[in-house]
Write a structure and sequence with these properties.
Helix 4 packs across helix 6 (70-79) and helix 4 (38-50) crosses helix 7. The chain contains 9 helices and 3 strands. It is globular, with a radius of gyration of 21 Å. The chain has 217 residues and is α+β, with helices and mostly antiparallel strands. The chain has a 3-stranded antiparallel beta sheet.
Length: 217
């Protein structure tokens, strides 16, 4: 992207930037302290009460609670214990965080800023490995940034790395992906930007099926 647009690249830690330029509402509290449980209290409350009518109709018809997967049940259990006041306070904090990111990171009034985010660690995810217990992500997690901001995000594969599979005992390939994010309302601009960067860097705009994301040449 830097070569394509001859632009400045800045590596940034949200936590470090918050520490040096916190919003006034945080009253000098760290990001972790100010936003603690904001994600849980907002998301879990809404997740639980969104299904109120469904649970009521199901229990009225079948005289028992609905059987759901363990993640949904966990969310209901947690959400049922969160008050409306706690939920509303969490939403307020998320709005503070949103405005802070828009002004301090994206600088929407001054620049056209693109944010490149890592998606996850590049490591095998075997299907015979049981998932860990459910957990609530923090508001500052990169997966929350787009929904909190109401901003467009595109996740694209940019390459692949080899690894030795314990299933096949062969050298296999893992795709490497990144997410691109831009200011709210810039969906078309973001799509065109990603496309241009891929074209100028000679990367494929299509993904192959099979053991590699690249079609054999």
């Amino acid at each position: 992207m830097a070569n394509c647009y001859q632009t400045f690249v800045r590596k940034l830690s949200l936590k470090e930037l918050w520490s040096s330029q916190p919003p006034k509402e945080a009253k000098n509290r760290s990001m972790e302290v100010y936003l603690k449980e904001a994600g849980k209290d907002s998301f879990m409350y809404d997740s639980y009460h969104r299904d109120d009518e469904f649970r009521e109709r199901y229990e009225a018809q079948y005289h028992k609670a609905p059987l759901v997967n363990r993640v949904t049940q966990w969310r209901w259990d947690v959400g049922s214990k969160i008050s409306k006041a706690a939920r509303d306070h969490a939403v307020f904090k998320m709005e503070v965080y949103k405005e802070w990111v828009l002004q301090s990171v994206l600088q929407v009034q001054q620049e056209t800023t693109l944010v490149v985010l890592p998606v996850m660690d590049v490591e095998p995810n075997y299907r015979d490995t049981l998932p860990g217990p459910p957990f609530s992500q923090d508001v500052w997690d990169s997966l929350w940034l787009s929904p909190v901001l109401g901003a467009p995000e595109i996740t694209v594969p940019v390459g692949e790395v080899p690894y030795l599979s314990r299933i096949s005992n062969k050298r296999e390939m893992l795709p490497v992906a990144i997410s691109w994010l831009s200011r709210p309302g810039s969906d078309t601009m973001l799509a065109r930007t990603v496309t241009r960067c891929f074209e100028e860097s000679k990367r494929s705009l299509t993904v192959a099926a099979g053991s590699s994301i690249y079609a054999p040449r």
